[in-house]
Amino acid sequence: xxxxxxxxxxxxxxxxxxxxxxxxxxxxxxxxxxxxxxxxxxxxxxxxxxxxxxxxxxxxxxxxxxxxxxxxxxxxxxxxxxxxxxxxxxxxxxxxxxxxxxxxxxxxxxxxxxxxxxxxxxxxxxxxxxxxxxxxxxxx
Length: 140
Hints:
Number of helices: 6
Order of helices and strands: EHEHEHEHEHH
CATH superfamily: Sugar-phosphate isomerase, RpiB/LacA/LacB
Largest sheet: 5 strands, parallel
Strand content: 15-25%
Distance between the termini: 29 Å
Radius of gyration: 14 Å
Number of strands: 5
Low-confidence stretches: none
CATH architecture: 3-Layer(aba) Sandwich
Shape: globular
């Protein structure tokens, strides 16, 4: 599996830990390369654009709360970024919303828990059915 990943400075350490904990994934790290201050919208844009260019892929965005990344990524009609704080929310975001970006809050999620949330996210599948028409409306 291939995933795009990016963070801001607050999420940098969790990003690096998550890549180590999930070394079974082929990561495309879109930055940053250090924990020096950066602006999260720039990195949300990078992952969102990468997924728009390769719609079969998914991504992970990490900032302090996860919320800023989710807000910015969701400005693209093709993106469904989900801020997830546990495995159940990750499964529902994929199953009901066909989420293609997992957003995590580094200040509120341990590395081990983030790895579990990511596992749930990537293993869940979109249920389709009654959810399909709703997901189509999200991109309008």
